[in-house]
Amino acid sequence: MNKVRIGIVGLGNMGSAHTRSLLAGNVPRLEVTAICDLDPKKFAPFPQLKSFTSSGEMIRSGAIDAILIATPHYFHTTIGIDALKNGLHVLVEKPISVHKADCEKLIAAHTNKKQVFAAMFNQRTDPYYIKIRELVKSGELGEIRRINWIITNWFRTEIYYASSTWRATWGGEGGGVLLNQCPHNLDLFQWMFGLPQVVRSFCRFGQYHKIEVEDDVTAFFEYASGATGVFITSTGEAPGTNRLEITCERGKLIYENDAIQFTRNEIETTKFSRTTKESFSAPQTWDIKIPVNGHGGQHNEILKNFTEAILDGKPLIAPASEGIHSVELANAILQSTFDQKAITLPINSAAYRKRLEARIAKSKFKKKTVKAVVTDFSKSFK
Amino acid sequence: MNKVRIGIVGLGNMGSAHTRSLLAGNVPRLEVTAICDLDPKKFAPFPQLKSFTSSGEMIRSGAIDAILIATPHYFHTTIGIDALKNGLHVLVEKPISVHKADCEKLIAAHTNKKQVFAAMFNQRTDPYYIKIRELVKSGELGEIRRINWIITNWFRTEIYYASSTWRATWGGEGGGVLLNQCPHNLDLFQWMFGLPQVVRSFCRFGQYHKIEVEDDVTAFFEYASGATGVFITSTGEAPGTNRLEITCERGKLIYENDAIQFTRNEIETTKFSRTTKESFSAPQTWDIKIPVNGHGGQHNEILKNFTEAILDGKPLIAPASEGIHSVELANAILQSTFDQKAITLPINSAAYRKRLEARIAKSKFKKKTVKAVVTDFSKSFK
Fold it and tell me: What is the mean pLDDT of the segment spanning A154-181?
């Protein structure tokens, strides 16, 4: 095999963008040969491609070796399992599933390890996050004391939510900003720092938009190490902020405005505190700017890595099995607000699913959909 | 009367600094004539001043018109009441008392309004905070949505805590960073934004130092308006951060590194969100740098204002009666962690006092004191 034939299911904002990018030849050896959507009107821009209104038919068509799943999130699990059982390589958009129990089912279906199973965590290709992760993992920062991520640059307008019935409903998405925009940041959080032990949160549902799910989140994390974290996100703030502050024994690292600034203590904080004879003093510091160029290949780099994993056996940047962590974190944050208490990880996946099903059952939310203009979707890739 | 004779009680770090500053003639028409401390060794650097080991004697000596109280916090209440009852003008260091019930007692003793009663909230003289408050109060920012204050530049070394027996104990201070360092920031918070309605917190006791009180705080505030706030402080981080981010309908204001940056939305966020036809768009913005010069007169400006209030009837920058708000906020933050639940303001002052007394009663903490070097106390005025 010297190329991979891929089918794309779900021609919404993301699926259409991926289809256009592959047709433009952006990813060598990855050829889009089929598309699938419940709405056949979505096929019109792509007359050269085989089209299906049933994912099951596309999966069994023989026209594809791999599938990219870009449907509403609940279908990631069902279509993913169907594709894995039928021998396809699978690349699933984030989140890999809506809740932890679905993640477990989906990951369990990946029995043949010759099939490549990856997740679209494109922000793992960003050299800024790669560099920060290196600094954390290498021990260069010393022990981590506090992580403060304000990631509020996910502004969405009222019509964004109003433009489709499934969006921002418990039944259609299983959550709001935590399930749709923030899986990237939750994945990066656990990829850089691991999962916390205890999660407390204050989520607000429909604070800024006419929706039933959360569009404003403040979460507090405790790690087994004693480190803490604050994670703040919202789709209601403009202009938003993306500022990650890491307090560590070696000082403080700040990522903001496309720059990594590391203020490095010559002596580690605790050692200094315990040995100095002075009441009012602090370690001497170095001001370090860590140079990083650009934001990496993003979606196309994940598509390229997926192709190379299939054809050349390369290791994956984002194995789908790791996608369970960001879902568990999102679920724990929601559960803490549902139950008004601290949640200890790992969560009980069956219990969380029941809690979510109860929300869906008692939802009285009816959305009117209106047609939105999508002038430039790339604005949303922050 | 054309000058004010002041006595200073408590010759610790602050009281000694105030005494030296007044002896240097930094505040016109305010003459330090007496000092008071339990430890007569503290008088040695000031042989020219009348000295007392009893505050009651100094208050009744006829040598002073006014008193500056710079003792450990619990004595602010008792000495303050004694001084007010004996007709003195009173300037009390922050916090005005340790807990709300003591604040109420102290403020109630101020029956003769011809006596000036002020609090040492010197950071209210800082032009940066004055400007931010103006922008908030004038409506220039539009409705406030979220306030995020990371104020962790209160690093203290182990020996700072070890250098006196009363410091950082429930019995001696009634708290840690919230009662000693942060009263400034809690006062500014309520001065700029008012008091929240609900407080949740996660305080950690002795996280970074061998102390029994809190040296690490994450608090979450809810306002009646729907606004939220996050307040993070610590004495265990070096280098610390002082970053205040205000998200508002008119955009976002950030105060950090001696600069105020206002990113102003041409159209207010909610109006934009509800009227645009585009899913992925945001208001056009202006990048505004708001010029501010220097950090103001600080302690000496409060001393000058106190003198002018007495001699010229000028309005106070920081009336002591306003000092109850920062104490109530500090108490609510501690109570939320004590009780592991959300606390609604106003708090029950008698109930909080009982809770604190119980902490003192069951404290088994014994401190060994060691002698610290104080090379440059001014480093601590952040």
Answer: 95
Which residues of chain B are within 8 Å of residue A276 when distances are taken between CB atoms?
A: 157-159
pTM confidence score: 0.95
Are the Cβ atoms of B163 and A279 closer than 8 angstroms? yes
A128-145 burial: b if 16+ Cβ within 10 Å, else e: bbbbbeebbeeeebbebb
The alpha carbons of chain A give a radius of gyration, in whole angstroms, of 22
The per-residue pLDDT for range B286-328, each reduced to its tens digit, is: 999 999 999 999 999 999 999 999 999 999 999 999 999 999 9
Rounded to whole angstroms, how far apart are CA atoms A313 and A318? 14
Can you read off the two tokens belonging to residue A123? 């922000």
pLDDT score of B134 more than 90: yes
Interface test with B, best of A228, A235, A279, A340 (most B CBs within 10 A): A279
Among A220, A230, A238, the residue with its CB nearest the CB of B265 is A238
Distance CA B349, CA B356 (A): 11
Joined tokens for residue B280: 């992925």
Q: Is the pLDDT of residue A374 over 70?
A: no
Mean pLDDT of B351-366: 93
Give chain B's radius of gyration (CA, Å).
Answer: 22
Q: Could you read off the pLDDT of A236-250 as tens digits, one per residue?
A: 999 999 999 999 999
What is the layout of strands, in order, in the sheet containing B259-265? B285-290, B259-265, B251-256, B242-248, B144-151, B228-234, B214-222, B198-205, B343-344
Q: How far is CA B63 from CA A101, B306, B308, in A?
A: 77, 18, 20
Which residue out of B158, B280, B373 would a mutagenesis test of the A interface target, given it has the greatest number of A Cβ atoms within 10 Å?
B280
Chain A with chain B: Cβ pairs closer than 8 A: 177
Helices B349-362/B323-339 angle, 10° precision: 60
A353 and A347 Cβ atoms separated by less than 8 Å: no
Taking CB atoms and an 8 Å limit, are B377 and A280 in contact across chains?
yes
Q: Do B279 and A163 touch (CB under 8 A)?
A: yes
**Residue in B148, B158, B251 nearest the CB of A274:** B158
In chain A, residues with a C-beta closer than 8 Å to the C-beta of B208 are 270, 273
Determine the average pLDDT of the residues in A90-118: 98
Tokens of A21: 């990018």
pLDDT at B382: 45
Q: Which two tokens stand for residue B168?
A: 């950082």
The token pair at B345 is: 């303001």
pLDDT (0 to 100) of residue A371: 75
